Amino acid sequence: MPPRKLALDELNRLSVDDFKDAEKFPYCLILDDIRSLNNVGSVFRTADAFRAERLYLCGITGTPPHRDITKTALGATESVQWEYVADVMTLARELQTEGWIIATVEQAEGSTLLSNFQPESNKRYAFVLGNEVSGVRNEVVQLADLVLEIPQFGTKHSLNIAVTTGIVCWDFIQKTTKT
User: Fold this and answer.
1) Residues paired with residue 27 on neighbouring β-strands, in sequence order
2) CA–CA separation, 172 vs 108, rounded Å?
3) pLDDT value for 179
4) Phi and psi (nearest 5°) for 9?
5) Which residues, other chains included, contact 38 with Cβ-Cβ below 8 Å and sequence gap of 6+?
6) pLDDT, tens digit, for every residue of 97-133?
7) 3.40.1280.10, 3.60.150.10, 3.30.360.10, 3.30.390.30: which CATH number matches 22-176?
8) Nearest CA-CA partner of 107 in 88, 84, 134
9) Is 77 helix (H, G, I), strand (E, B) or coil?
10) Domain residue ranges of the chain, discontinuous segments joined by +
11) How many other CB atoms sit within 10 Å of the CB of residue 3?
12) Quick one: which of 13, 24, 26 has its CA closest to 172?
């Protein structure tokens, strides 16, 4: 018998309340100066799908409620814990003092290819994703404990911020869980 697509009620989704109570994976996402509200909404959905502890929106990054974020988030603005912090450097320093490992996702000297990244157990990671054109600010790259780079093999050497987030989250989850 060929496989059949599952119906929505067969997906065993968590309710928003159950999601809020569920244990999260030990990472957060930091979006700095993201121009596209559709990208922001997409990252909300990814943060929900991969149970991020929190999503930080920094700089010019738009915040809910906004129809473009809502359109792509599909309700994830209600489940994912998020916070706006104006200055990404202040946030990164604060998280470092709390023991978070700051990992920028950028093409930089001395970067670690994502395929070679091995998260340390019992550590929490804050993944910083930057502007669609200029990327992560150089001062954040320099402050970071780790710079991760996604290997790319085509002519474009850049990925959409929402795609990048999905790759990084999936990589982290599959390397830190046994599911």
Assistant:
1) 125
2) 20
3) 53
4) -75, -5
5) 68, 69, 71, 72, 162
6) 999 999 999 999 999 999 999 999 999 999 999 999 9
7) 3.40.1280.10
8) 134
9) helix
10) 22-176
11) 5
12) 26
